[in-house]
Amino acid sequence: MTEILSDTHESEERPLRRPEAPASTTLHGELVAALRDYIVEGSLADGARVPERLLCERFGISRTPLREALKVLAAEGLIELLPNRGARVRVFSAEDLHELFDVMGGLEALAGRLACERIGDAEVAEIERVHHEMYRHYLRRDLHGYFQCNQEIHGMIVAAAGNATLRATYDSLAGRIRRVRYAANLDKQRDRWGEAMREHEAILDALRRRAGSELSDVLFQHLRNKRKAALRQAEPAEIPE
Amino acid sequence: MTEILSDTHESEERPLRRPEAPASTTLHGELVAALRDYIVEGSLADGARVPERLLCERFGISRTPLREALKVLAAEGLIELLPNRGARVRVFSAEDLHELFDVMGGLEALAGRLACERIGDAEVAEIERVHHEMYRHYLRRDLHGYFQCNQEIHGMIVAAAGNATLRATYDSLAGRIRRVRYAANLDKQRDRWGEAMREHEAILDALRRRAGSELSDVLFQHLRNKRKAALRQAEPAEIPE
DNA sequence: AAAGCAAAAAATGAATGCAAAATCTCACCC
DNA sequence: GGGTGAGATTTTGCATTCATTTTTTGCTTT
Lengths: 241, 241
What we know:
Chains A, B: One of its GO terms (molecular function) is DNA binding. Chains A, B: Keywords: DNA-binding, Transcription, Transcription regulation. Chains A, B: Residues 1-23 are annotated as: Disordered. Chains A, B: InterPro entries: GntR_C, TF_FadR/GntR_C, Tscrpt_reg_HTH_GntR, WH-like_DNA-bd_sf, WH_DNA-bd_sf. The structure is a homodimer. In chain A, helix 4 (94-118) packs across helix 7. The first copy, chain A, is mainly alpha-helical. Chain A has 2 domains: 27-89, Arc Repressor Mutant, subunit A; 94-178 and 185-234, Four Helix Bundle (Hemerythrin (Met), subunit A). Chain A has a two-stranded antiparallel ribbon. The longest helix of chain A has 25 residues, at 94-118. The first copy, chain A, has helices at 27-40, 52-59, 63-76, 94-118, 121-139, 143-160, 164-184, 193-208, 212-234; strands at 79-82, 86-89. In chain A, strand 1 (79-82) and strand 2 form a beta hairpin. Chain A binds chain B through residues 22-23, 25-26, 28-29, 64, 67-69, 71-72, 74-77, 81, 83-84, 96, 99-100, 102-103, 105-107, 109-111, 113-114, 163-166, 168-169, 173, 213, 216-217, 220, and chain B through 23, 25-26, 28-29, 64, 67-69, 71-72, 74-77, 81, 83, 96, 99-100, 102-103, 105-107, 109-111, 113-114, 163-166, 168-169, 173, 213, 216-217, 220. The structure holds a DNA duplex.
C-alpha cells in the first residue's frame, strides 16, 4: 500500500465535529454529498468505472463507507452497479433525458399548482423581482445571468409549493440532469430565448392570478419546449470539459 | 467453503459471456428488496428501531450488506438513520402523508397527460374493462375487489405513460404510503365511494377524448379527495395487524 | 429512598482481512 | 502471425475486527 499523507499528529483534534450541526455529522452522509458533487460535476467521464480504491484515497476513508455511499447514489440513479463488475457513471440516453424532462415538467406543474394555493403576495413579488432581473439579462443578451435567474425562479416556485417531499424528489431528479445541463443549455438555445421569455411571462401571469391548473399547464409546456431545445443539440454533441 | 468443481481440463465449456439472465447475483439487491418488503408489510412497528443483529440472523448475512441495504432504504425514505443511534422505521406524520398524497397526485396527473399522448385504443379499452369490473364491485359493495381494480387502473395509467423514470419515482413514493394504505382506506371510505366512482368516470371520459390537460386536473383532484378521505380517519387510528 | 454518577454492556461506524470473481498478461499452439 | 487459455494481478463482495458512542445497570451520596 502506498503511504497516504495523513496528518494525525494531534490526536486530540476534533475530527470534523461541528458543535452547531450535530445531525449532519454523519461521515457517511457528508461522503454521499461529496461523492454526488464529485460525480455530478463531471469529474468522472460518462460510463467510466468508479474507482473504489482511488476514491478511498481521494477522500481518505476506507472502502466500507464508500461502498455504502455508492449504493445510495445508485439508488438515486446517478451510477449503475453491475454485479461483480463495479460501479459505473450512469450514461443517460436520449430516451432517459426525454423521460427525465417530462417528469421534471410534471413536478414543476405540480409545484405551480400547489404554489397557487398558498403563495402570498410578497412571495409573488419576490419572484417578479427575479423575473425582471432575468428580463434585463435577456435584453443584455447575458445568457449566463439569464440562466441563473431562470433556475432561481423555477426553484422559487418549487419552494413556494411548501412541500418537502416534492422538493426532495425534484432535487433528486435535478441532480441527474445537472451533468447534462452544464453542457446542453448554454449554446444553441438563443433562438428559443424569446419564446422562453414569453412563456415566463405567462407563468408569472398565471401565478399572479393564482390560476393553479393553468399554471400547471404552462409550466409543463415550458419544460417540454425546454426539452426540445436541450435535446436537439445534446444528442450529437459530447460533453466538453 | 463448499467444494467447487474446477476440473475444466477437457470439457471446454463456454464461459457464458452474457446470457442476459444472471442479474440476480446481487445478494445485496435481493436483500434490499427483502428488507423493503419486511418493513413495508409492517413487520416492524412505527418508529421502532431496526435491529441490525436480529435482521442479520434473520437473513443469514453479516452486518456489512445489511447496513448497505439500510442506507438505500433510508435514501428511499422508508427508514431514518440517526447518527450513532441506529435506524428507525420512519414515522409519517399527517403532514408527511399530506405531502406524499400531493406528490402522488402530481405524478398521476403527469401520467394521465403523457398517457393521452401515446395511448392506443386497445389500451383504453383494457382500462375500460377494468373500470367496468370495478363498477361491478361497486354495485356489489365489494370494497376489496373495488380497491384492487382501483389500484390496477391507476397503475395502468402510469404504465400507459410509457415513462420508466416516472414509473420508478411513482413506485418509490407508493412504497411509503403502502404501510398506511393498508389500514387507512378500507373502512370509513364508504361515504366517499360514490364520489370516487363518479371521478373515475370523468377520468375515463377524459382519457377517451385524449384530453391530457383535463385528465391531469381530474386525476390531481381525485387524489386530493382520496387524501381527504384517507387522512380524515388515518390520523387517530392505529395500524391494526 | 430518590437522584446522580460511574462503569459495564451493547450497539454503531468504520477499517481490515479474506475468498471468489473478473480482468489482465503472456507464453503456447495452430 | 493470430487466436487461446492458464496463471497472475486486480477488484469486488462479504465477514470479521476494532474503536467510539450510546445505553443500561448498579452503586454512591444527600
